[in-house]
Amino acid sequence: MKIFPRNTFFFLLLAIAVFAGHLARAAELPAPPDINVHSYLLVDFYSGAELAAKNADKRIEPASITKLMTAYIIYDELDKGNITLKDKVLISKKAWKMEGSRMFVEAGKKVPLNRILSGLVIQSGNDAAIALAEHVAGSEAAFVARMNEQAKAMGLNSTHYTNATGWPDPNHYTTARDIVKLTRAIIKNFPEHYKLHSKKEYSYNGIKQYNRNKLLWRDKTVDGVKTGHTESAGYCLVASSLREGMRLISVVLGAKDEKSRADYSQELLEFGFRFFETHKLYDAGSVLAESRVWKGTKNVVPAGILDDLYVTVQKGHYKQLKGLMELDKSIDAPVKRGDRVGTAIIKDGDIIVKEEPLLALDAVDAGGFWSKVTDSVKKLFN
Asked: Reduced to 3 states, what is the DSSP secondary structure of residue 167?
């Protein structure tokens, strides 16, 4: 048997204990559900934390999940006052002739925009998507240009649209991660319009159709969001559930049938709610530290956050979180409100669970000549 020196033996025992602690900690959290799809992603709405993922950046065909962006632009136009729910939307022959899922509008008729919007969101009508696109932008092509501009502005860097419906096209694609970003934006920016996504059925022209999101019937905490299906894309579902102040968003892409996409989405949501918890750490505008400012009219500036700060952690770990504020030591005036001056780091033991920029909450103007000279000297010895 090999004999270790006493010090070596002590450190070996210590290393084993630390390693065992890490193993015990990891063992507390089971693996995410084993889901047989092209890709999936589970994210907390408030914190943005990713709780489970598979091929989240894989380029996929979105099918009718495309209509989330179509709806986003309509919601934005409504909120800006450029259109109203009472607008009369003229139905073109192109809209009327669209194949796939439809709300069955008739060419040449004028239909109130609120009815067309319901047909888009609840019935996933391709005819509704074309009618709304033409009403807002004059043509589907012009509307699609708006969709791509919006995608770029939102940082959907792996997304490109060629139509407003989700009709298959090699250059029409997105990813699970981009879909989550878009869904979070809809829920955050348009909470009143988002309520439409929880409607289970809608009737138009004497035809009642049901929302294809089966989770709306199965789970009362689910209030959206959108289904999609083509032969090439498979069965897709974006779902969102709100339970006791915690909201999760799941994206399942490429399931084999309607039941599978619903079952898989439910599994992901249950996994998230069972093993994680979300808390608001700080309110918007909270001062978390003071940052030294050089060569300015003031020596310090309050540093904090401009938006509410949430964190998602493994259940039972919230009380052991610790915050560390790292401040930039070489900030020269002028400083504008919102300028980054450091980083807030939230740790669960030795694991970083959140990093958030620390921002200047006030402005600091540049100082005079004497301030610049003296601070230049002081800074050398800081």
From this structure: coil
